[in-house]
Amino acid sequence: MDKRSKIFLDLKNILSNYAGTLVESGNNESSYHLHGSIPVKVGKADYEGIYFASAVIRSKYVALHFFPIYTHTAAFDNIDELLRKCLKGKSCFHIKKDNEALYTHIIDLLNSGINIYKKEGWI
To answer: What is the C-alpha to C-alpha distance for residues 67 and 53, in angstroms, rounded to an integer?
Structure first.
């Protein structure tokens, strides 16, 4: 198993803990997606179930897409520096290392996102 596959499986296992609260889609060997099941309006956009997060194997890293950091940017201003270094763009983290400390910060991030989405009534 190459490094990216290991990282992907680790992230998929972390994300899968939120299945039940969220809906799984695109579940295969290289991608895993979670979204809500309640129709919501965010800004001018309507969603059948708002996107939450995904893990996708890319050529040099595993992308962890995390939509709550896009919809509620200020709520994530103080994320751990180890995790912040992986943030590329607005809502995509490039995970290149199998790192338990980083995974702990990702779990904290996901829990914060779940709480925000619940408070908004989006899930």
So the answer is: 6
